[in-house]
Fold each of these.
Amino acid sequence: MKKKTMAMMMAASFLGAGGCSAENMTTQKVSAEPDKILIAYYSWSGNTRFAAEQIQKLTGGRLFEIKPVKAYPSDYSACVDQAKQECRQEFKPELAVKAEEFAKYDVIFVGTPNWWSTMAPPVRSFLSAYDFSGKTVIPFVTHGGGGMADCERDMRKACPKAAFGKGGAFSGGSIRNAADALEKWVNEVVTIRK
Ligand SMILES: Cc1cc2nc3c(=O)[nH]c(=O)nc-3n(C[C@H](O)[C@H](O)[C@H](O)COP(=O)(O)O)c2cc1C
């Protein structure tokens, strides 16, 4: 636990908790029917999954877990080391599952843990695996103190054909008590058409 906290503090302090530099390019609130909404996420230790499940309940959209063929080590330090290399190299691991009927979705919430201030590599793979033309991506991030950092900026770079909604960043450690914050943000980014 101590090691983990230290690593997080290190990452958060030297990489900073900066916001999105391309905020002026953010799409205004979108409106969509539940069956046009996909909530895709990668989660290593469950926080981003929890956020994704809340977003699914709030929107009625379809949940999709992004899974690499080769899972990351369950050992925290080994995972941090591997992630460091992969994030630096913008590595895109092969994914195990394809999202069905991807073309039918208009709004895609894309969730990632903050890994070394950017998205987790499987999310980078996801963003380059599909045609995002005409779609709106709404990023959401859980973190260990570093906030959004470069996650949203890097997601935009990795997915240039999509429009982007306003990203949400939530503390992973308190995500299970963040129902109100999640709901407030979801209401800011999407209107559900029934
Ligand atoms: C490999 C790795 C790298 C991480 N790097 C950062 C970081 O740079 N900044 C930060 O705030 N949190 C960092 N964290 C903490 C996670 O972002 C945070 O615990 C998140 O909520 C985990 O989401 P998950 O449970 O969905 O995997 C890192 C965690 C791991 C495993």
Amino acid sequence: MAGILIVAEQLDGALREVSQELVGAAVSIKDQVGGPVQVLVIGADPDALASGVNLEGVDEILTIQTPSDHFDPLIYEEAIVTAGVQSKPSVVLIGHTSSGMAYGAAVGARLGSGFASDVFILGHDGDELIATRSAYGNKVEMEMGFSGKGVVVLTLRGATFEPPEGAGSAGTMAVDLDVTSIVGASTHVEYQEAPPSDIDITKADFILSVGRGIQDKDNLPRFEALADKVGATFGCSRPIVDSGWLPKPHQVGQSGKVASNCQLYFALGISGAVQHLFGMKHVDTIIAVNTDPEAPIFNVATYGTTVDLFELTDALERHFN
Ligand SMILES: Cc1cc2nc3c(=O)[nH]c(=O)nc-3n(C[C@H](O)[C@H](O)[C@H](O)COP(=O)(O)OP(=O)(O)OC[C@H]3O[C@@H](n4cnc5c(N)ncnc54)[C@H](O)[C@@H]3O)c2cc1C
């Protein structure tokens, strides 16, 4: 077994950014793993998506045609196992996304592989592949080796690995698999576009985010005004969205948006739960304001203070108004 098989991810016929990030991750370990880098594209018109993953370092693009672009984990599982049995890669890379999580572990089990999820660093110890992931609520980083495993399946965290910049010249090959006989566990009802928003957390370079520490919906406007005043995009933690205080596009985190381009993240009254950290812990400069000195946000903060966020906001308003 040799080589790396990447599973491209698409949403309703459009390639998702994590697909190119997986290629970047594969290229970073290609010399140590050896063998070809192959990208598997699954969809109604996989050839149309192939050019998006034909990047520097890719040796071959495999395609499997499905009756529609709607995601079905059983079809993905079968497609990846079929491609894996034919290509015999030593590493399979999948996005750690809601789709990837739906089939990644099943693929690992069927291939009899080593498995790790939500991996954010790939490295080597001699000949052995080492995958780093968090454990114990993000309090420790765990380096995992897979000795004795011929194949390793990994789901990789999004917005973590850099896609290659150059274009590739890989050829495309269709994998022979009739997916029409696969009876899915789910039925696609309809595809709903998220409501349009002028907020794009993924593109913002400066985000001021509020969490449950702001206590009341009536307090929101002053933080929104402060964000506006200092030129920050207004973000929030999930409870603020779940309470209906702000619409979903403001949410930072695992089930919200990743602050991919953010340089400065200002967190007011956010505890730093692992799901929130998922969306912002990589940011260069993080300023955390939280009265609880044990709050996990301080584990990732560049600067932190335990002053009351309302007192600090009073002072900032005096300064900026
Ligand atoms: C599957 C799943 C997905 C999830 N996805 C997300 C996600 O995408 N994004 C996300 O954010 N969460 C997500 N969550 C929820 C997450 O687990 C936490 O519940 C959430 O992040 C907590 O939000 P918070 O920090 O605002 O609230 P809390 O955890 O309640 O923290 C509030 C903080 O405010 C501080 N505080 C209170 N008053 C003040 C004050 N006056 N001054 C300063 N500090 C003060 C407190 O000390 C506390 O630390 C997800 C959970 C699950 C299970």
